[in-house]
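Long-time lurker. I teach an intro course on protein structure, and each term I like to show students one example going from raw sequence to a predicted 3D structure in token notation. This year I'd like something fresh instead of my usual example. Would anyone be willing to generate the tokens for the chain below so I can use it in lecture? Attribution to the forum is fine with me.
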Amino acid sequence: MKKIIQIARLELSLLFYSPIAWLMLLILFIQMTMGFTPKLPELARGQTLNALTDKLFVNIEYAGVLSAVLDKLYLYIPLITMGIISRETSSGSIKLLYSSPVKLSHVVYGKFFSMMLYNLMIIAVICLFVVIGAIYIPHFDYPHILVALLAIYLMLNTFAAIGIFVSSLTTYQAVAAISTFVVLAFMNYIGRVGQGIDFIRDLTHSLSMPDRTARMMSGLLNSRDVIYYLVISGIFLALTITKLELERVSKTVLQQVMKYGLIVLVGLTITYISSRQQMIGYYDATATQQNTISKNTQEILKNMGDEPVEMTEYVNGLEDSYNQATPNKRIADIARWEPYLRFKPNIQMKWVYYYDSIPGITEQLKQQNFTFNHYVMFMSNLMKLDLRKFLTPAEIKQKINLEGENARVVMQLKYKDRTTFLRTFSPDSYFWPKEAETGAALKRLIVKAPKVVFATDGYQRSMDKIGDRDYKTLANTKLSRGSMVNQGFDVDSVSLENGEIPEGIAALVIADPKVAFSLRVIAKLQKYIDQGGNLMVAGEIAKQGIINPLLESLGVKMLDGTLVQQSKDYSNDLLMPNLAAGSVAMIPELQPYYLKKWIVSMPGASALSYDSNGPFTTHPLLMTNPESSWLKKGKLVLDSATAVFDVKAGDQKGSFPVALMLSRNRNNKEQRIMVSGDADFLSNAELARVNMTTVNGGFAQGIFKWFAYGEFPIDTSRPEPKDNATTLTRTSVKALQIIYYGLIPGVIFLMGMVILIRRKGK
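-- Reply from a regular --
Happy to contribute to a lecture. Here you go:
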């Protein structure tokens, strides 16, 4: 060890007595300064960003300073390592090393140790920017940044080991530098080779660098990636030692090839074994545990025990979604499952490729006098598909019934004897299911899914229609992430007049009945309520006479008149009530929206009144704004004139409830009923509204989670990040600009000049 340290000290002295080492540090610092310092004035002016540690330092989308420099670091190391051994060869001093009592391994390790120390100096330069975050960002996420720095350091050391090996292959430093660039580019590119072939895909991915560094930069430290960097460094150091030893002794070509091959084989074997899921250890360094699935999803996987889960992904080569799930993208697909594999390694994954017709294409083909076989041939030639690798329509139908899945990429999860679908979504900013949908699908495999039934009599809102006033987006749109069928629920409909209300359902929904209920239906509903069934009743203005007979037994009444709200941008009948405290009591996840006074849009709503001494415990969920809204009696005329409060006409000011939650103990469980003075807030149009910020979707999910007693949707929320502000001021920004634009670069330059001048003097 003593000789290794001596060699390292000698190598460092040679390194820093040349201008290249100082120049590299100076250029690195200037590059980082130009990318980081311009962001500071915006932060000093009060610009707010959540998770500042992540966004300023490691987030690729926000050009974090560490992630931005990551792509440039491979440019520095080859210029440092290009002469580390080639210098010995070209000067002839390598012969002295061969004849000296010093082991060649000690020489190589000493030179590598010197590079490790130089890489620490690079990390020190990077830390000059981390210091700004540590000083000026309260609740700075230190563990996350430390893991990111470790990732960079491991990568730099791997680059150095590669550079040392390449330097041993030639006597020309320029050739060594260029060759090192080529090898590093190969190591970055190799992960893209053979992605369509299973065996080659796994092998090349196990050698790829970029994904590993990015994963660790995100704050997820894992044994697989650490071992990878250590093994690759070890491989190239061993190759260097072997190269030098073989130059000193005579070996046949076969012996040389076998020795090199053994080193590579042992290294690749260790890398492959350490990348098996059962062998990987994880540590999520982020404050919000953003790289780890939520506790609820972890609990679901734990409750599955040791039984395997099968995930089969079905991909239709003729549908546009095929482009998101080609064999070349298999690694990214597997990576999406890694957070779940971390807690349940026996999730078995397979992919089935097939071709079949697409909904709506048959009519188009008929109009164009085009057969399906012609269409298949045309599309396969256009997309360059080898149909021999795809199941035919007949073959896929023998395996599984995918009718109703829109011929898109869909996953079937199977656990024991139960199956469920996990879908992909469009149009959506993110095509694949997120944790909420995945967790819901997994939980459906171990618990009975809650069923919500929609009443169909009386021209009520339909769960299957796409009209503005209907509920398909809420209940039954398979392409919509937030739809109930993708959040763990089963949905169905029932005719109250001709059918019976199913037993064991989570809730019955009666939305905007337009004709009076018959005595027979009233009797059915009353029986359902008396037995403790959960119920949602959503009425509309001018329908009080239809709804109130049902609400009477609940101690609730829809008041006559229309709630109006003054607004300079919207119609006076568009109500914008705020979440009340009862909404947080119903679903605690709504608390952030309640505190921020978010609204629910309700076009045309009636006020509700309730008997506080009635049979149910009642709490308001939504309340109108008493400053800008009132209850208008009589007919509301919507024209160019603004609605005016008229006390003589009986108008009433105040804060009125427009949605109520009712509960009581019934048959050893809590009966839950929700009443709304508007049925539009759950409609397709309101859930898709873009001209104002509303919480209709979250409120809707909260209602049905309440009906499901918290079983679905799955709560995947995490703690809010605390590093959301800085203490930067304009004065401190100016001081930092002086320090980082002038003082520190000047110090690095002067240190380099002084050392070089002293070296020249000696």
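Some talking points for your students: The domain at 448-563+574-629+656-707 is CATH 3.40.50.880 (Rossmann fold). The chain has three domains: 2-286+734-761, 300-440, 448-563+574-629+656-707.
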